TrEMBL record:
Record keywords: Amino-acid biosynthesis, Arginine biosynthesis, Cytoplasm, Lyase
Catalysed reaction, written as an equation: 2-(N(omega)-L-arginino)succinate = fumarate + L-arginine
Domain Argininosuccinate lyase C-terminal, residue spans: 374-442
Pathway listed: Amino-acid biosynthesis; L-arginine biosynthesis; L-arginine from L-ornithine and carbamoyl phosphate: step 3/3
GO cellular component: cytosol
Lipid biosynthesis as UniProt keyword: no
Enzyme Commission number(s) from the entry: 4.3.2.1
Protein name as catalogued: Argininosuccinate lyase
InterPro entries per record: Arg_succ_lyase_C, Argininosuccinate_lyase, Fumarase/histidase_N, Fumarate_lyase_CS, Fumarate_lyase_fam, Fumarate_lyase_N, L-Aspartase-like
A single BP term in Gene Ontology: L-arginine biosynthetic process via ornithine
C-alpha cells in the first residue's frame, strides 16, 4: 500500500481505494444522506442479517463469520435505538455507517458482508421493508379515523341536515349519511394502499449494482427470510425502479386531500355562519389579539398540509422523469419527500381521530338549516312523476311553485292544498308527506340513498367491518 492509500483508508471511506485525494468537505456535506436516511437503520440491519444467513448457506462465508456479523449488527441496532451511536456524514449514508461500525467491531468478517451486494439493491430493499411497515401503520390510522366517523354516525343517527351542491342547500340528508361518506373515502384509501403494497412487497436484493452477480447467491432464500412472496425479475429495472414509492405518495396525497375536504367542512361548520359543530376547547386555539376568538387551527393545518404532501408526490415524479437506467444518485432524493409525506399524513390522521372524538354536532341548528332554500322541491317533482307526469314537465311546474313561495317569502310546506292544486290537478292531500324534511329524506330508499333504513344498514355494515360492537 502506498502512503496516499494509507491516508485514504484513514478517512474511513469504504470506496476509497481508487482515489488519490480526500473528498472535499463541501462534497461530503452536499452528498450525505445520513441526516435523514438513518431512520432506515432497523430495516437495513434486518436486510443485512438475512443477506448474511444466505451468504453462509451458500458457503460464501462460514458459520462463525455469519454469527459474528449477526451479533455485531444486533449490538449496532441496540446502540442506535438507545442513541449511543455516532453517525458520520463522511460515511454518507446509513448503509456505510452501519457497515463501517460492524467492521470496526468484528474485524475481517464485517468486510465480507457486502459480498454479492451493492448499495443500489440494498437501498431498494431498505425502502421496501420500511414502506411495508409504514403501510401497516397507515392502515391502522385510517381504520381509527373510519371508526371515529362511524361512532359519530351512530350517535347522531336520525339527525337531518342540508345536503349541499355548489355549497348551496340542495336536498335534505341525514348527518350520518354525510359522515359515512368519509368512511367510504378512507376505505378506498386503505384499499389503494393494500394494492400498492403488492408492488412494494417484492424482494430486490441480488440485483447487485445493476446486472446481477456471478456469485452463487440464493435470492429466494432471502425473500423467504424477510417474508417477501416474490423476488424482482430484472436487475436493471430493480435498481432503477421507484414506482412503488411514487404510488404510495399518490395514496398519501389522496388521503391528505380527503382529510382536507373534511377539514374544510369543520372550518365552515364551526363558524357562526353555520354553527353546526362545536370543537372541544382542547382542540382549538385562541387569538393573541382578539379575546373572543376560538379558532379551528387543527382542521386549517390539516387542510394546509395537503399542499405539502402533494408537493412531495410531484417532487418524486420529477426526480424520476428522464432518468436513464439504472441507478443514478438523483434517486437518493426519493427519501425526504417520502418521509415527510408519511410523517405529515400519519400526524394528520392521528389528530383527526382525536378531533372526531372531541367534536359535537348541534343537530337542532342543522335541522333548522333544512328550512329555507326549498330543499324539498325535487320531491314534489318526483311526486308528480309517480303520477305519470314527464319529469321535465314536473320540473317546470315545481319551478313555478318555488317562484310563488319566493314572491310571498314562505316555505313550500306553508302552501295550502288548494294553492298547490292550482299548479297541477295531480296534486292531492298526500303531497304533504313529501314536503316535510323527514318525508323527503326517508323517501330516498335507492341503494346508497339517504333514507334512514338505508343509512342504518350502511352503518351496521361499517360497524361490522371495523369491528365496532
Ligand atoms: N444513499 C444512496 C441512496 O439513497 C444509497 C445508494 C448509493 N449508491 C451509489 N451507487 N452511490 O440512493
Amino acid at each position: 500500500m502506498t502512503e496516499s492509500n494509507n491516508q485514504k483508508q484513514s478517512s474511513g471511506k469504504l470506496w476509497g481505494g481508487r482515489f488519490a485525494e480526500q473528498t472535499a468537505a463541501s462534497v461530503e456535506a452536499f452528498t450525505e444522506s445520513i441526516s435523514y436516511d438513518w431512520r432506515l437503520y432497523r430495516h437495513d440491519i434486518m436486510g443485512s442479517k438475512a443477506h448474511a444467513r444466505m451468504l453462509a448457506k451458500q458457503g460464501l462465508i462460514d458459520d462463525k463469520e455469519r454469527d459474528a456479523i449477526i451479533a455485531g449488527l444486533t449490538e449496532i441496532e441496540q446502540e442506535i435505538s438507545e442513541g449511543r451511536f455516532t453517525f458520520r456524514a463522511e460515511l454518507e449514508d446509513i448503509h456505510m455507517n452501519i457497515e463501517k461500525a460492524l467492521t470496526d467491531k468484528i474485524g475481517a468478517a464485517g468486510e465480507k458482508l457486502h459480498t454479492a451486494r451493492s448499495r443500489n439493491d440494498q437501498v431498494a430493499l431498505d425502502i421496501r421493508l420500511y414502506l411495508r411497515d409504514e403501510c401497516a401503520a397507515l392502515n391502522h390510522l385510517l381504520t381509527e379515523v373510519q371508526k371515529g366517523f362511524t361512532r359519530l354516525a351512530r350517535t347522531n343517527l336520525g339527525a337531518v341536515m342540508p345536503g349541499y351542491t355548489h355549497l348551496q342547500r340542495a336536498q335534505p340528508v341525514l348527518l350520518s349519511h354525510h359522515l359515512l361518506a368519509y368512511v367510504e373515502m378512507f376505505g378506498r384509501d386503505r384499499e389503494r394502499i393494500a394494492d400498492g403494497l403488492k408492488r412494494i412487497n417484492i424482494m430486490p436484493l441480488g440485483s447487485a449494482a445493476l446486472a446481477g452477480t456471478g456469485l452463487p447467491i440464493d435470492r429466494e432464500f432471502v425473500a423467504e427470510e424477510l417474508g417477501f412472496p416474490a423476488v424482482t425479475a430484472n436487475s436493471m429495472d430493480t435498481t432503477a425502479d421507484r414506482d412503488f414509492a411514487m404510488e404510495l405518495l399518490f395514496c398519501l396525497t389522496t388521503i391528505q386531500l380527503h382529510l382536507s375536504r373534511m377539514a374544510e367542512e369543520f372550518v365552515l361548520w364551526s363558524s357562526k355562519e353555520f354553527d353546526f359543530i362545536k370543537i372541544g376547547d382542547k382542540y382549538c386555539t385562541g387569538s393573541s389579539i382578539m379575546p373572543q376568538k376560538k379558532n379551528p387551527d387543527i382542521p386549517e393545518l390539516i387542510r394546509g398540509k395537503a399542499g405539502r404532501v402533494t408537493g412531495s408526490l410531484v417532487s418524486l415524479l420529477m426526480t424520476v422523469k428522464g432518468l436513464p437506467l439504472t441507478y443514478n444518485r438523483d434517486l437518493q432524493e426519493d427519501k425526504e419527500p417520502l418521509f415527510d409525506a408519511l410523517d405529515t399524513v400519519k400526524a394528520s390522521l392521528s389528530i383527526t381521530a382525536e378531533l372526531l372524538a372531541n367534536s359535537d354536532f348541534d343537530t337542532e341548528r342543522m335541522k333548522a338549516a333544512t328550512y329555507g332554500g326549498f330543499m324539498t322541491a325535487t320531491d314534489i317533482a318526483d311526486y308528480l312523476v309517480k303520477k305519470n307526469m314527464p319529469f321535465r314537465q314536473a320540473h317546470g311546474v315545481v319551478g313555478h311553485i318555488v317562484a310563488l313561495c319566493q314572491e310571498r317569502d314562505i316555505e313550500l310546506i306553508e302552501l295550502r292544498l288548494d294553492e298547490l292544486q292550482q299548479f297541477s290537478d295531480l296534486i292531492e292531500e298526500d303531497i304533504f308527506n313529501v314536503l316535510s324534511v323527514e318525508g323527503s329524506v326517508n323517501s330516498r330508499v335507492s341503494i346508497g340513498g339517504t333514507a334512514e333504513i338505508r343509512v342504518a344498514e350502511a352503518l351496521e355494515r361499517a360497524e361490522q367491518q371495523l369491528g365496532i360492537v
